[in-house]
């Protein structure tokens, strides 16, 4: 069996598990948001700020993916947020099987947004479905405006793009137009939110959009359950 | 054949090619520096500044690794630096075979430092030898001080660590001690250079260290060639 065939088999097996996860989440009124970004773009901060914004409306849970450590999981736990840490060892991404195990440890007694913070990596996470409803890519002004050109596959998967650290846009000479042109070269421009986890700007718009997606999904699910 | 065995075979085949690359580079008086970092940490800027510093002493060549685009190769070419772009498609790292092909396209008529700018990724490049003499990891203050804890494998491989964007250390609340403790938890602390490609600080020390490594390697090579 060749390398390409092995790779295809791995991806197919993952897709099958991702479909099962999707059924599990739908039947438990869970909206799943897969958060992907380069290391240090602000995944943890964005998740925390979003939970603060929407804490009155939904329950939350977080799965933290890292090769090692439980630094981010500790941050969540300190704030009383239900969290599971996955340490991937030498693996560069989360996969559907890891999510199945971790997600099964939460209790879902009301509509829940489950954030999955993927391993910080702009390449490998884009290939592995987890059973998510939304894929979010967080860019940051400090990492430069050329990333969509260099890492197109992750932007291809994005249902929304966040540009974090927008308070540093000018200091970083971040070219917003070049960035957006790069995303638009890969796919029709998805919703874009410019945010700063430091000064809070733009977070309301993003949280508002996420809540509307959540209503669409969970409203739909509840409708189906009522019919069934 | 199982997944683990396939993985081992791939890594072994790569090691064999890396050894051949190493022989090729040694016989051509080339010091090879594999530059690894997260996206946007400043790999290209650091390479450019280093070449500026040492242009009188060595010839230079650069191999640029990216999934897509030739943005960084164009930057090098504009400055008259011999450069080859490798586009990896959906691959998350460079491997020894890619380097063999690209490196064969340069002419080496005097002692040369060859920089390999790996794909921006703190996970996968750490597993694949390229035939390099030195592995350099560039962190940046903007990506945070916790990365050695989360991505230990790449730091385990580092012969030197650079902290770039050091001019933003205070603004970013980058905890130097926490960062260093994280590296030292993985391996005996390698040489560490705090640099700013923006204001030039620290670059002389780094270039000086690199030149000394180069003398050690190429001096040694020339010695051996003279003996042979």
Name of the CATH first level of chain A: Alpha Beta
What structural category arises from helix and sheet content of chain A? alpha/beta
What overall form of chain A do the CA principal axes indicate?
A: globular
Mean of residue pLDDT values of chain A: 94
Number of domains of chain A: 1
Unreliably modeled segments of chain A: 223-228
- Report the oligomer: homodimer
The CATH topology of chain A corresponds to Rossmann fold
Biggest interface, residues from each chain: A-B, 34 and 35 residues
Q: What is the second-level CATH architecture of chain A? A: 3-Layer(aba) Sandwich
Please describe the biggest sheet of chain A, giving its number of strands, its sense, and whether it closes into a barrel.
7 strands, parallel
- Helices and strands of chain A, in N-to-C order? HEHEHEHEEHHEHEH
N→C terminal distance of chain A: 45 Å
Cα-atom Rg of chain A, whole angstroms?
A: 17 Å
Helix content of chain A: 40-55%
Biggest β-sheet: strands ordered side by side in the sheet of chain A? 3-2-4-1-5-6-7
Short summary of the structure?
The structure is a homodimer of 228-residue chains. In chain A, 43% of the residues lie in helices and 18% in strands.
